[in-house]
Amino acid sequence: MLKINELFYSIQGEGSYSGLPCVFVRLTYCNLRCTYCDTEYAFFQGKDTSLDEIISEVGSYNCKLVEVTGGEPLMQKQTPELMRRLCDAGFEVLLETGGSLSIETVDKRVKIIMDYKCPSSGMEKRNLYENVLHLKKTDEAKFVIGTREDYEWAKKIIETYRLFNKCEILFSTVFGELHPRVLSEWILDDRINVRMQLQIHKYIWDPDKRGV
Questions:
Q1: What is the pLDDT of residues 30-88, one digit of tens each?
Q2: Taking the CB of residue 67, how many other CB atoms lie within 10 A of it?
């Protein structure tokens, strides 16, 4: 069993799959409390659901792209098993994780989107840097940037852990805090090869709307 906060079909708003239809499985619980969190409702709310029920509902949308997210999905022990079974069933599976828990047991077929917590998140000290050892070329490292300090910190982490050699790197802004144009100009000025991204679902729908 897993505690599910919500399961919905929408447009992928971030990363290299941005713009594609995707089924989202949002799991309950999170061990972090980021200052800019936009899913606090996932901290505790949820319904106990069997893996069979989850996989059946995911399949009902006739969409092969699935993202397991949270909250922090790796807090629940059966999450790796759910992802393994989704892969076995022919789904392309994405995992969005806050990077504070080990990804070592995640099925290698799963594309990991690991969110490195920048200083303005208040959770910088919770980053589990050993996770870099388990990143694959197909994975993504994401930095949500709210300040210039965050930006400089992100560049340092990328260099220290040689992330350019590990996986694709995503930069995005804290929604409503840093204008995307400003971050774009920093990236261009420094000529760094990262993917600038927007949370496009927050531009398509109301930023506070659930299930999108």
A1: 999 999 998 899 999 999 999 999 999 999 999 999 999 999 999 999 999 999 999 99
A2: 22
211 found inside a domain: no
CATH of the domain at 81: 3.20.20.70
Distance CA 31, CA 175 (A): 22
Q: Quick check: helix, strand or coil at residue 180?
A: helix
* pTM of the predicted structure, to 2 decimals: 0.94
Phi, psi for 100 (deg, rounded to 5): -100, -10
- HEC string of 65-125 equals EEEEECCCHHHCCCHHHHHHHHHHCCCEEEEEECCCCCCCCCCCCCEEEEEECCHHHCCHH
User: In this structure, is residue 91 part of a structural domain?
Assistant: yes
Q: Quick one: which H or E segment has residue 49?
A: strand 47-49
- Give the C-alpha separation, 154 to 148, whole Å: 10
Strand pairing partners for 22? 10
**Domain limits at 82?**
2-204
**114: in domain:** yes
